[in-house]
Design goal:
Blueprint: E1 3-8, H1 15-30, E2 37-42, H2 48-55, E3 60-64, H3 81-87, E4 91-94, H4 97-102, H5 107-119, E5 123-128, H6 132-136, H7 140-151, E6 162-165, H8 179-196, E7 205-208, H9 216-220, E8 227-230, H10 237-244
Parallel strand pairs: 1-2, 1-8, 2-3, 3-4, 4-5, 5-6, 6-7, 7-8
Helix pairs in contact: 1-2, 5-7, 7-8
This protein binds phosphoenolpyruvate.
Length: about 250
């Protein structure tokens, strides 16, 4: 399976800079020497429609950073999964730790969002990962297992979901787990997916948390790492491209 390198722009980018970043990636994709991986970007909601136009025909997929669990209705300020599909998205991130923490999202809510994403024809990128305190207590496998148990939608097949392992303590900190720690967690997640999902052995498992151009090759070479979810470093076209080109 080709790896997936996904850029989560978070709450960054006015129209001019967001479009310039998307155009810079499209120009690189058109210039030859494409990376040997799938690429996706996750701009803020305000930029999805114009960036969908920019990406058309480039091979770079579009994703959103969150969706509501309902398909429509009285939910001021929220965006529904069918709206994201209509805007040109293929993917939507659900359960990012910043939403679990800042918005108090529970596993049940994340599961409802992932289910809504599937119903709208989107591929949810389901984020799981332990806090530093949980790792220090040796609870990381148990925590991730519980998050998967509680937030994976029911009756899934391979191709319908992507899982991203993002240790909370690695996000935006410049710290990363060792290759051994990443390998152990990804193997654990792989076993859980293989046991619970038809074709679960083929569900891509991304690593996320302080992936940069200078550590991407090592992280992307770890067994069972099927790609990367990149935050800060995805805001720079040159660095994001270098990460994508690090796919072994
Ligand atoms: C993220 O928030 O999904 C992420 C991986 O962030 P960063 O790469 O900046 O650590």
């Amino acid at each position: 399976m080709r790896k997936l390198v996904a850029g989560n722009w978070k709450m960054n980018g006015l129209k001019a800079e967001g479009l310039a970043l998307a155009r810079a990636l499209v120009a690189r994709a058109a210039a030859g020497d494409p990376p040997d991986c799938e690429l996706a970007i996750f701009p803020p909601a305000t930029l999805l429609v114009p960036i969908a136009e920019t990406l058309r025909g480039s091979g770079i997929a579009l994703g959103a950073q969150d969706c509501h669990a309902e398909a429509k209705g009285a939910h001021t300020g929220d965006v529904a999964a069918p709206m994201l599909r209509d805007a040109g998205c293929t993917y939507v991130i659900v359960g990012h730790s910043e939403r679990r923490t800042a918005h108090g999202e529970s596993d049940a809510e994340v599961r409802a969002k992932a289910t809504a994403a599937r119903a709208a024809g989107l591929v949810p990128v389901l984020c799981v990962g332990e806090s530093l305190a949980e790792r220090e207590r040796g609870e990381e496998f148990e925590v991730v297992e519980r998050q998967l148990e509680g937030s994976l939608p029911e009756r899934l097949s391979a191709g319908e979901i992507v899982v991203a392992y993002e240790p909370v303590w690695a996000i935006g900190t410049g710290r990363t787990p060792t290759s051994e720690q990443v390998a152990a967690m990804h193997a654990h997640i792989r076993r859980r997916l293989a046991a619970g999902i038809k074709g679960g052995a083929e569900v891509p498992i991304l690593y996320g948390g302080s992936v940069k151009a200078n550590n991407a090759r090592e992280l992307l070479s770890v067994a069972c790492v099927d790609g990367a979810l990149v935050g800060g470093a995805s805001l720079n076209a040159t660095e994001f491209w270098a990460i994508a080109q690090s796919c072994p």
